[in-house]
Amino acid sequence: MFNRAWVNLSILLILLGLLLRVTALLALGAFLAAVIVVSRTWDRRVLRNLRYERRLSHSRNFPGQTFDLTLLIENHKLLPVGWLHIDDELPKAAVPLQPDLLGPSSLPDQAVLTHNFSLRWYERVHRQYTFRCERRGVYSLGPVRLESGDPFSLFSHAEERSPRNWLIIYPRLVPLPALGLPPKDPLGDLRTRRRLFEDPSRIIGARDLRPGDSFRHVHWKATARQGRLQVKVYEPTTSQNVVICLNVATFAQHWQGTRPEKLEQAISVAASLAHWAVEHKYAVGLIANGALAHSDQPFRILPGRSPGQLPRLLEALAGVNPFVTSTMESLLLRESPRLPWGATLVVVTAIVTPELVVALRRLHEAGRRLVLISLADEPPGEVAGILVYHLGSPAFGRMASSS
Question: CA-CA-CA-CA torsion for 60, 62, 68, 74, nearest 10 degrees?
């Protein structure tokens, strides 16, 4: 409401009161000038020492679960707040149980929670709402916009505060039979899980060449010293490790776009396998050719058995976005030397390209143990030496009914 005319009017009234010696005009002009000064001072101080806080009963949830959002607004000063307008940005992935609670936002996938308050000195107000988690992801709550002014509404100003709370919605976990995978051991025969592997990155000696030995393992330096063919002896290791390799690409050419439903199915399968493997005492790791939320960099989680490994894996899968950082075949060939040699690589993909099949064969020939889980529209066919599963639409129909 305030503009320069209010000041001019107060000055005019004071001058007229002095010139005409009319006390009423002088008093009215002085009163108006005092209101302007008091309102301006009030407006500059009204948002000071005003606290706004969000509290989540659970910041990590699965789809379908609910959590309570508690808002705390506190006026920590003697100056009362005559009116306060609050707009808080919240993700649409969390749906309030109270109808018509959220309003539209200018930001995509965001909604606005609006409040209007009047606070006395040192008054504290609580509001609590219940939300249901709908969609996987890592979401921020905030920023919040506070607007207030003087009691006469001559002045008002707003400020944006960015205290953010993070809400993590994990991927949906589905029992393996509902996915169409064998519940006992989807990675192959349990007896092979403890067999000995040879780690080619760790050479512990050399021996004479025997029938059946591959010439790829010939130790040429030892052969030159001994005068007869020698082969490398590698350090044995047991395989208790599983590395889930997630392909976020849903088209053969990633620049063609993405199929959200296929991507979510692949992430759900990866999360369900990670949960199963942790429960069965595997050391579980994860690599993906997608970036994490709020980032454009790929990630790698090495196999581990710590109590926090499963939450770490689920948080990473919750934050995976459809941005493709490299092809799946190049990721597998690049990351394979960095992974434990005895680890079983479980490739989860919505597409099976000829280039991916060639890369899998190369890894198998190098001694890697592989499992391919395909969500493609058509079965990928057999790949020699590799356990292959094809999860079609019927499997995911059962998944939807079981969840």
Answer: 30
Same domain, 93 and 217: no
The domain of 41 spans 4-45
Kindly state whether residues 101 and 246 are assigned to the same domain. Answer: no
For residue 232 the two structure tokens come to 């490398």
The answer to whether the beta carbons of residues 144 and 84 sit under 8 Å apart is no
CA distance 339 to 344: 10
Q: Which phi and psi angles does 56 have, rounded to 5°?
A: -105, 130
pLDDT of residue 69: 97
SS3 246: strand
Judge if 145 and 227 occupy the same domain: no
0.90 cut: is pTM over it? Answer: no
Q: b/e map of 278-297 (b: 16 or more CB within 10 Å)?
A: beeebbbbbbbbbbbbeeee
Q: Total structural domains in the chain?
A: 4
**Do the beta carbons of residue 376 and residue 352 sit within 8 Å?**
yes
Q: Both 292 and 380 in a single domain?
A: yes
Q: Assess contact for 73 and 51: CB atoms under 8 A.
A: yes
Residues 305 and 156 both lie in one domain? no
pLDDT digits (tens, 9 = 90+) for 147-161: 999 988 888 999 999
Q: What is the reported pLDDT for 103?
A: 94
In whole angstroms, what is the distance from residue 208 CA to residue 202 CA? 18
